Amino acid sequence: MTMTTPIFHIDHPSTEEAQDVMDLVALCDIEAIGEPDISLSDVLDLWQAVDIETDVFVARSDDTKLVGYAFVEQTGANRLDSCVFVHPEFKGLGIGSSLLAQVEQRALQITKDLPGPQRLMNQLPFTNLAARELVESAGYTFSRLYERMKIELDALPELFELPSRFTIQPFRPGMDAHTLFETYNETFKDSWGYAEKEEATWLAQKTGEGFDPSLWFLVWDGTTAAGFLMGRLEEDGLFIDLLGVKREYRKHGIGKALLLRAFHEAYQRNERTVILYVDSDSLTNANRLYRSVGMTPHSQTAVYEKVVKYASPN
């Protein structure tokens, strides 16, 4: 019997295909880490931040089934981030390499008028050896490892009591936006991967699908913000997007207090799972903090990097 190789072609998705894309990525997640790590709000938030007609790609089989997905997003003045996903049943057909080529071509177009070298990041499961070999063969080098940590809450967590000078308050959308943005910049500016953004752009990205101000918290020392936490509810539980404490306020238990406040809020909403990502080489030893409150590593994401620079025609 003669076997034919499925034909695929690459184009851009429609907004109505967000659920189909989520389902595809979920299949890839299940194969890589044993469970989905994607929500519909993740897809929609990204598509609001980019132009899906130029920055998002899908591969379709000859019967129009989605068999691949990729995107590239400019996340800073000198940085772009990307991911490539291939349906588990359609690997080894060149879909991944074709999507990666589309991502790189688009990255060059985005950066052609920008000064200096631009870094293109690609994130993939650390255990996906084929994907790692693919990006390495395309000139990417390993840059960073992130751990996906989680906890299953089996009881209402006890809150951590801070010194009396500090108070934890929920985020007030009409009053705290600028303070939160400044606190984020101050706490993350020395972190690997930090990319400076305009305040309006950053806030728009963070207040997209699934935004719930009652899951954002600021720690105050009088009228000065000392730290913050930003979370959102997803299909698989509470996801902690960002947690930061200003340098001069560290060693006071602020990070622990914020985490336990978020855990407490999740449990009261009947959400038992809390998830976050952490840099394995965190300068602040954030991994130790997360372990101290009961979180454990579940999977790892590798970040690969390639310098791209537009070559002007002669």
Describe this structure in words.
With 314 residues, this protein is of the alpha+beta class. The chain has 2 domains: 8-147 and 302-308, Aminopeptidase, CATH 3.40.630; 155-271, 3-Layer(aba) Sandwich (Aminopeptidase). Helices cover 30% and strands 32% of the residues. Strands 1-2-3-4-5-12-6-11-10-9-8-7 form a 12-stranded mixed beta sheet, sandwiched between helices. Strand 8 (216-221) and strand 9 (224-234) form a beta hairpin. Helix 1 packs across helix 2 (40-49). The longest helix has 17 residues, at 95-111. The termini are far apart.
**Assigned CATH superfamily of the largest domain:** Gcn5-related N-acetyltransferase (GNAT)
Number of helices: 8
Let me know the largest β-sheet: 12 strands, mixed
The CATH class name of the largest domain reads Alpha Beta
Provide the CATH topology of the largest domain: Aminopeptidase
Task: Give the spatial strand order of the biggest sheet.
Answer: 1-2-3-4-5-12-6-11-10-9-8-7
Low-confidence stretches: none
Q: Which structural traits does this protein have?
A:
about 325 residues; globular; single chain; Aminopeptidase; twelve-stranded mixed β-sheet; alpha+beta; 12 strands; 8 helices
Report a brief summary of the structure.
By secondary structure, the chain is α+β, with helices and mostly antiparallel strands. The chain contains eight helices and twelve strands.
